[in-house]
Specification:
Elements lengths: L2 E13 L7 H14 L4 H4 L2 E13 L3 E5 L6 H9 L6 E6 L3 E4 L12 H11 L4 H15 L14 H13 L5 E5 L7 H16 L3 E5 L3 H7 L2 E6 L2 E6 L1 H18 L11 E9 L8 E2 L5 E14 L2 E7 L6 E6 H4 L5 E12 L7 E10 L6 E13 L32
Parallel strand pairs: 3-7, 3-8, 5-6, 6-7, 11-17
Antiparallel strand pairs: 1-2, 1-4, 8-9, 10-12, 12-15, 13-14, 13-16, 16-17
Helix pairs in contact: 4-5, 4-6, 5-6
Length: 415
């Protein structure tokens, strides 16, 4: 297979802080250097490596996805590929025409009409005048802007602006399609149209590279994934293997940021939140179907009569409540809390799929008219397929991305 993209030890460095803005500032800085014989200005400046020694190749017909948290270097990599910026070091080679769906409508002029901007943007993306003439009707129809094509784009809504930008870029018939978080364009129907276009491009043995936080789409479309972290290449390989490692890493980060000791008022404070198994052993990783005990360590500065605790296990991505326990409903409030102690809530055999879950809660007073502790995040725990008792594991924690139901219940297939 022909190699479409080749990265060889590519690095990109950016300077932190403001650039020099005048000759006076430059002379002042160099004068200080000559007078003190300190380090040269370039050596003293602080820089950040957005990409650091990245090497990979992409062959014709392959679809590469890039994952990583914000600031990992994903967009910088796409900007280097599309020619927006040049690498600081290393070599990069791209074969064929590129269509970059990175900043939609970046080449539009606000005072020009939609029609004029189609021709302007099309030329910028490498189309000839005749090619634009042949595709013009299709571009306008795809963007659903027939009535407004002769209106200056400065009067367009942001959605109309982005739709026209996507439509022009989509009709360049590229050898390499670069996509960076643009599937949120327009309304639901237009988003589906964008997704259908990308899917048809991939199905046509074309080469593509995607950057997205929507791991569902990456899992469905890509043949290979790259995981970037802090500008470095952590892992490259099949989507299942890379996603498994990436999910484990992100889940451990979520667990590490668990907040201890939610603030309180009216003399009640939760000093620590722990999680235990059915044997009383403190853990934060459980098997699906195991009991999970939430242990609330409290400090009551004075007697608190019949406080009502409410807990909810939620999905961290959406905050969707999954399982709850409320003393307001079951009437199991303790008669009185005073001093330091532990209150536990045991959730029996939680039927949850492997992932991290959050526990939120609040505490109401005896009259159930005011909160002693407002609604807040108490902590988080993790479900994994093969969690050994007493210690976390990373085995078998791949999500069923296309069947993202968070609750596991018994079922069977019949034929």
């Amino acid at each position: 297979m022909a190699v479409v993209v080749q990265f060889e030890a590519v690095s990109k460095r950016y300077r932190l802080g403001a650039n020099q803005t005048s000759l006076r500032e430059l002379f002042t800085k160099w004068g200080h250097y000559l007078g003190t014989r300190s380090k040269a200005p370039d050596e003293a400046d602080k820089h950040i490596w957005a990409l650091n020694d990245i090497s990979f190749s992409l062959e014709q017909g392959q679809v590469l996805g890039i994952v990583g948290h914000n600031g990992a270097g994903k967009t910088t990599l796409l900007k280097i590929l599309s020619g927006v910026t040049q690498p600081t070091s290393g070599r990069m080679r791209v074969a064929g025409r590129i269509s970059a769906l990175i900043e939609l409508g970046a080449g539009f002029h606000p005072d020009l009409t939609g029609r004029e901007n189609v021709y302007l943007n099309g030329v910028i993306l490498g189309l000839s005048r005749k090619e634009i003439d042949r595709r013009f009707s299709s571009i306008v129809a795809f963007a659903e802007l027939e009535r407004f094509i002769d209106t200056p784009v400065k009067r367009y809504s942001s959605g109309m602006y982005a739709r026209l930008g996507f439509s022009v870029a989509a009709h360049t018939d590229p050898d390499l399609l670069l996509v960076d978080e643009v599937l949120g364009v327009g309304d639901i129907s237009f988003q589906q149209k964008c997704f259908d276009f990308i899917h048809s491009h991939v199905a046509g043995n074309k080469t593509a590279l995607f950057v997205s936080h929507n791991l569902y789409i990456l899992e469905q479309l890509c043949t290979k994934l790259i995981w970037l972290d802090g500008g470095r290449l952590v892992q490259v390989g099949p989507p299942a293997a890379v996603l498994r490692a990436y999910f484990d890493y992100m889940e451990q980060r979520m667990l590490a940021t668990r907040r201890e000791g939610p603030c309180g008022r009216y003399g009640l404070q939760i000093t620590r939140v722990g999680f235990e198994d059915s044997h009383g052993m403190e853990r934060n990783t459980f098997r699906p179907g195991e009991a999970v005990v939430v242990a609330l360590h409290y400090d009551a500065q004075g007697p608190i009569v019949r406080p009502s605790f409410c807990l909810t296990i939620t999905s961290p991505g959406t905050g969707q409540p999954l399982v709850g326990a409320s003393m307001l409903v079951d009437g199991k409030a303790p008669s009185c809390l005073e001093g330091r102690g532990v209150l536990k809530c045991r959730f029996h055999a939680l039927p949850l799929m492997p992932r991290v879950y959050e526990v939120w809660g609040e505490v109401w007073d005896e009259s159930c008219t005011r909160t002693l502790l407002g609604w807040q995040r108490f902590g988080s725990f993790r479900n994994a397929e093969s969690a050994a008792v007493g210690r976390p594991t990373t085995e078998g924690s791949v999500r069923h991305l296309r069947a993202d139901a968070p609750v596991r219940v018994p079922y069977c297939w019949e034929y």
